[in-house]
Specification:
The complex is a heterodimer of chains A (376) and B (1158). Chain A has 376 residues and is α+β, with helices and mostly antiparallel strands. Chain A contains eleven helices and twelve strands. In chain A, a hairpin with a 2-residue loop joins strand 6 and strand 7. The N terminus of chain A is likely disordered. Chain B has 38 helices and 34 strands. In chain B, strands 14-34-33-32-15-28-31-30-29 form a nine-stranded mixed beta sheet, with helices on both faces. In chain B, helix 15 packs parallel to helix 19. The longest helix of chain B has 40 residues. Chain B is elongated and about 120 Å long. The chains are: A alpha+beta (376), B alpha+beta (1158). At the A-B interface, strand 1, strand 2, helix 1, helix 3 and helix 5 of A face helix 4, helix 5, helix 10, helix 21 and helix 25 of B.
Amino acid sequence: MRTFAKDAFRGERPWGDTVCDPWFSVHPQITNADMNQELVTNGASKSKRNSKKPEYSRFTQQELPAWKPILTPGWVITSFLAIALLFIPIGLVSLFASMRVVEIVYRYDQDCVPETYRDNVTSYIQNPLTNKTCIKNVTVPKNMEAPIFVYYQLDNFYQNHRRYVKSRSDKQLRNAGDEFSTKGCEPEAKSKAGPIVPCGLIAWSLFNDTYNLLIQDKVLDINKKGIAWKSDTKDKFGSDVYPRNFQAGSLIGGGKLNESVPLSEQEDLIVWMRTAALPTFRKLYGKISSDLKAQDMITVVLENNYNTYSFGGQKKLVLSTTSWIGGKNEFLGIAYLTVGGICLFMALNFILLYIFKPRPLGDPSYLSWNRNTSRQ
Amino acid sequence: MQLDNNLVPDNVRLIYIDDPQRTNEEYEFTGNEITTSKYTVINFLPKNLFIQFHRVAYIYFLVIAALNQLPPLAVFGRTVSLFPLLFVLTVTAIKDGYEDWRRHRSDRNENNKESLVLQSSKFQSKRWKDIRVGEVVKIRVDETIPCDMVLLATSDPSGVAYIQTMNLDGESNLKTRYARQETSLMSFEGGLTSGVIRCEQPNRNIYEFTANMELNAHKVSLSQSNIILRGCQVKNTEWVVGVVVYAGQETKAMLNSAVSPSKRSRLEQAMNKETIWLSVFLFVLCLVVAIGMCLWLMRHQMQIDTLPYYRKSYLIKGKFPGKPYKYYGIPMETFFAFLSSVIVFQIMIPISLYITMELVRLGQSYFMIEDKHMYDSSTNSRFQCRSLNINEDLGQIRYVFSDKTGTLTENKMEFRRATVFGKHYRNSSMVDGSTKDTETAEPTKPAPLPTKGRKLKSDITVDPHLMRLLHKGLDGSEKISAHEFFLTLAACNTVIPIPSQSTHQGSMGTEIHEDLEAIDYQGESPDEEALVAAACAYGYILFERTSGHIAVDVNGEKLRLDVLGLHEFDSVRKRMSVVIRFPNNDVKVLVKGADTSMLSILSEDPENDDLSLVTQRHLNEYSSEGLRTLVLAARDLKGEELEEWQSMYEDASTSLADRSSKLRQTASLVESNLRLLGATGIEDKLQEGVPETIESLRQAGIKVWVLTGDKQETAISIALSCKLLTADMHQIIVNGTSESECKMLLSEAKAKYGVKCGGFRTQSFKLKKGAESDFVEVLAESKLTNLPPEDDGNRELTMGGPLALIIDGNSLVYILERDLESELFDLATSCRVVLCCRVAPLQKAGIVDLIKSRTDDMTLAIGDGANDVSMIQMADVGVGLCGQEGRQAVMASDFAMGQFRFLKRLLLVHGHWNYQRMGYLVLYNFYRNAVFVFMLFWYILCAAFSTTSALTDWSSVFYSVIYTSVPTIVVGIMDKDLSHKTLLQYPKLYEAGHRQEGYNSYLFWIMMADTIWQSLVLFCVPRFAFKESTIDIWSMGSLWTVAVVILVNIHLAMDIQRWVLYTHISIWGSVAMTYACVVVLDSIPVFPNYGTIYELAKQPTYWFSILLIIVVALLPRFTIKAMHRIFRPSDIQIAREAEILRKRRFFYGSRVFWRSTS
């Protein structure tokens, strides 16, 4: 509803929707007449007290000291050159480091199935009575210096699957008193005899192939101590938690655990339970503390127990030396070199660009309104 | 319809004076307790939650959190998923609770005030909340009135009371209210009072009140002048007594407290479009995951029961042999995959953005309020942000609709010119040397005031000729006219003289009167005050006014004039008149009014005709000088005519219904056949800096339209003086009196100036032309303030010179109500200036709506008076000036300030900053969330489409709340592309906002492409760097968390224009904070990610990966940015370079800084 009322000599005056909110009428307005009167009578002191003039500060006036970078050609070229100068050396160094790493990768999942079972691999691997031992030979291509790390590598095994990653109980692993907290471990939470320790799909599917290495019929020691992270063995897996009811179901997922060894010493389990990020992953099996010479023939005696056949996964044995950058991976080196190269190229391009097509900085003739007039 | 004849009981309120029992017997009227608070302690929680969930954003949060509680969808842990919702709800609830607590407190203060109420025949103190309708209340001087009351008596025997209505409408002048003579002498203590008041039901119109009072079988009419309203204060009156008619929530003050409708910014509307696109992205991502899941399940259908990482069923020997575990068949699993990916990707829709924007706007408002350049010392008012939603709209304004009076001009009236009996006199001020006519070179000394001890506060210089005429003893029509002229000035008004005892010293050469009694005039309009002050200067001093008489001191001789009747000003008649009985029993009608309404009712004798011709010539002169003119006339009223008028007036003023039209009829009886006395010209001074501001706004590509209630000549002259109109402009004047005439005028103008139909084409043509030619301004060291004539490039227009459209209110009636709107629009948009005169408030809104509905351009309305309220509310941005005319405009506005010239700074500086900041903020927030979501998406493709997140639950939640939120807010509040000096110097930079350079769909899509690239880099570098390695999922997640936070922060850092300390702290602090959080989260043994960061940080590959990610991800962006600077530099960039390099040169002296040469 809009109503009108009188107003002297200024057309009609509608009564708008005025706010009489207590918030807004706190400071009644002082008109000039009043103000001037007050100023005259009471002097400057009163005006100072009543004044709502904002106090000056560099903060409120948005004038704080500031660094105002502009993307000058100098900056552009310098940045490109700096990146190039930083990246090319890093690329070279890491590429060399990676190339020095010697790696033996041997895929055995196909070879270790006897001819007779080739058509029915599942029945072979699931039958506990079949002989799983498999003896193969690999040649060392180059000299390998200790320490040599022994890994197993699984392909197409989605350890990062949501159902799998969540299927564990960290409470139960840590504390002997919490053996009943098996939340999230279904369907491997409880057996008829009680709660499963360690529960969950991750533990249930523990990798259980074993490797023994012989070099010239001499046993090559694989040290299986210290393969897990210190933090895991110390705090995460309890030293008073012992496996119970583990792998007691009809469907055996993988390895069994020695019920007299506490979880904190079951390093294979600890390594396995650090679920991998990607479907192709390696896990540390052990370390060899002696050097290997080129052309050495290593005999691998392995127990091929773990079932990857049902989902088409691959199993590989990996022996690898290490460098400061880690294992053999040339990606970083190549990427750094490429990026460094591109930056060098860009820097040269920009230098040429500024030589042949310079735009003076802050030149007003490039302003849109000036550009248009000049074209006219 | 007479109220008392056909009484409709529903529409009448019966009040028995001093008898609240009987008054409230039939129907309990609302008590006087007020509540503005929303909540009580008990209902706070449910009600606040209910109100909060009205926002779509919160419902989205809630739905996501609820979905996560379903067992098959539990992506995050239970507490984690509720965290964002709880966080936001708690923060808002605390804010609401605090505000409501303050409201409670102010309510309590208000309700517990005390007033004197007649209780058992004595005035006793009573709390406000206990006052009831029908009670008699006594209020003493300077007290606030507790409820709406009808005045019964005052300390003044004539029944006058003065009140100040500042709390109600902001007008600081005193208003008179009258107690009826019949009650004014009653004594109340003693319980003899009785009477019935019949009044209308409560309504919100504070300028109307219709009621009557039955007192001892007499019927007395009551009107607006008999009521005093809650919130007003009693001034200059020792006490008043009144009877309560409306109380509490039913008082007019409370009924008028409504919040102005909230507006949404244009950027936010545009943003919503892109939000829909983001929803499409979200939908597609989820669909891909769902379909992938479906295909994967179908392919592995035979294996999933035994698959070590899926295992759909329980052990055969276990608790539930063979029962499927969390497996519901492929269609359901697909559906669940879809839903759970919605949960994982939820931040794709940047809900937190809305909260961030509110915080940023709050910060921006703070800086606008604190800007010392927008503080007005004359009214002691800071800039006010009353609306927190539309800061960034200030950067895109295309049309400014301005009121004239009080906005462009100061609304401080000064009496400048008079024409009396055909002779022209002028009051040239000593200060204002700009008056052109100097032929009467006589120094105009202020004449000594022949007053006895009375003096006006302001000094008005008088014209000695006129002064001499007044003192000439001779009789004659000229002298009589002059006498009546000033009598009219002194008497025909509603101004209240307030004697004040201040020892004001005489000045400007006059001798010092020690015993001066200064008179302060309080009028409803500044024009009236100016006129009365002028009369005073010429010796006609109004010093007393009551409801029945006025007293004027004429050159020392005191005249008591009985006021028989007063016809107040109304917008139909456009004049006011008083009927006055002189001591010698002569009765005269004194009239003043607008020239158009006066000249037609003058008597038609030849002498008067000559006079009116001369006077009209003078009037035209005055108008062209920009003065406001009024015509004064008078006539004698005798015998029958007087009686006829008296009876009609009596009847009209006591009638309840239709009073105003009856009064109008009565007025027309006496307002005829008048003798012209003369006319006045009042100067309305321009505000400081108005021409410069208009010039800057125009250079900025903003069209300024002036909408005024003044008449055409005045409007044009003001427009000329504030450089809105220039001499070279072609004025198209549309003054139609019928529809066909308007149509003809419009089409003629269009044909003549070659305006084409189709507003948009014409407009863009015009704009382009404007950009090309209007301003040959060069951004050089020498500042060009005075631009070369602006018509250079407009030569192409058929007639040459830019166009100005001047249109009046009458024509607008025909045009806006008929189908001529589009014609007007075409014409108006091709004109540089549009001036609308004589427009009513609703027409102002109509014109704003014309532009708003037909273009996408942003409109801003600025005004100071109540008549601008509709326009202010209609426009996209409403700006109110805290001026002379009260606070309605301020109350309805989004922003309020003290001076028109602040508009330049508000738009060009703050508008520009706010727009640039907010545009970037929105884009950046979209990017920040999308890059995170895409990164998660790529990983899910590597995890057999199961919605795994490598990041820990807490990191996912903290990402947009803690890790990356602070820098955006700091940058949104504090970043500045250009200094205010540069922005003010080159107003054309404002056009960046018009071109939507800060935010548009093109930028959005570029940004999305960049986002996808960056997310791919984020995903792929670790993917390949840790290919066939022992990396575990938490290490990978930790790497990604840190990498994405560093990446988005460096991305932001690349775009920051101004690095202050706070920016450094927030950006590098965020990165540090993220690391700290990661370390803390990895130090809690019960989390599966325990110890991750410690192992990870030992590997060089980790650090190299992060470095590689940052560089590779930002390389395309950096290159494109650098290229853009070379080939297509934006205006802002160039201005910025110029600004910074100039400053550096200044610092380094003549030594040329090396960068500037390259």
